Amino acid sequence: xxxxxxxxxxxxxxGLNATIVRRADGTxxxxxxxxxxxxxxxxxxDTTGGSAGPALEDINIGGIELTNATIKYQDDLAKxxxxxxxxxxETGAISNNKLTPLKFSVDxxxxxxxxxxxxxxxxxxxxxxxxxxxxxxxxxxxxxxxxTDTNIDQTIKLIDLNASPKAVTAGxxxxxxxxxxxxxxxxxxxxFPLAFDLAAGVLNLKSFTGQLDVNxxxxxxxxxxxxxxxxxxxxxxxxAVDLTLKVAAPDTALDAKVGVNGFAKPKIKFNIAADKIxxxxxxxxxxxxxxxAAKNPEKPAPAPGPEAPNDLSALNDLTSDGQASIGQLLAxxxxx
Length: 336
Known about the structure:
Blueprint: E1 6-8, E2 11-14, E3 17-22, H1 31-34, H2 37-40, E4 59-61, E5 64-75, E6 80-91, E7 94-95, E8 100-111, E9 114-128, E10 133-147, E11 150-163, E12 167-180, E13 185-197, E14 202-215, E15 224-235, E16 240-249, E17 252-261, E18 267-274, E19 277-278, H3 279-282, H4 287-295, E20 319-326, E21 329-331, E22 334-335
């Protein structure tokens, strides 16, 4: 076998500008560059049986530095245009099974739906070229932008990440999301260890914890906080989902178990129990509605208009079996 060494100083590229078009018929402007499926099945060895390339463990590159790149993707089929501007990538020295720093950033815009975002990635990577895997002791992904009238600010932190064609695992994944609209602000946090067996199609979140905070005057004058915890398993091959969830809000405790079999025609089993739910805390009566009866005690109610038909066709392919129990329900001044 032919053994070679590939060594290079830092690879630098500035001002790359590329446009990719997907036409209305589904073909793209780079089909001739990426080849056909038949090309992909060709052997990587030459006619003499020797290796067509160097041994992967002998690849050493001083680093990669990509700056001021712009990539435009025009999708005529989906009627959408995505533009990546100010794209930059910087790494340290790259060689087999060696830790290297990584910095990546890009400004992205889209037209359908109208959106913009600033994406940054910062951390360390350890590529194993022989095993075709990558590890990272710490990796942080930040996304800040907006979609239509919603502002989004999200941070994802991954600790002890290992990814290969067979599995993706992480000792800890921390997701913090901040979503803002005109009058509503939502803060959500979620933390869990990750185990995703790609070969078996099994995603296992053996435990997760988090909290949801909603600040919306239409719901409550105070911030609504819902801390939660639980576990989940998703089997994509068997089309099965199992979820346990506990919510420990200041005025209620809720336990739920949900099982789903089949994705196209789901069969859902559930058992939900809550000791107390105060609906008025989360959906208070509007002030105008409270005073309307006192101001006009003898005013006749308006004649009801035609009742809109209810479309329940979405339930046709759903089968559900379960129970929900509430110890005490408070709603519109009623106690049940």
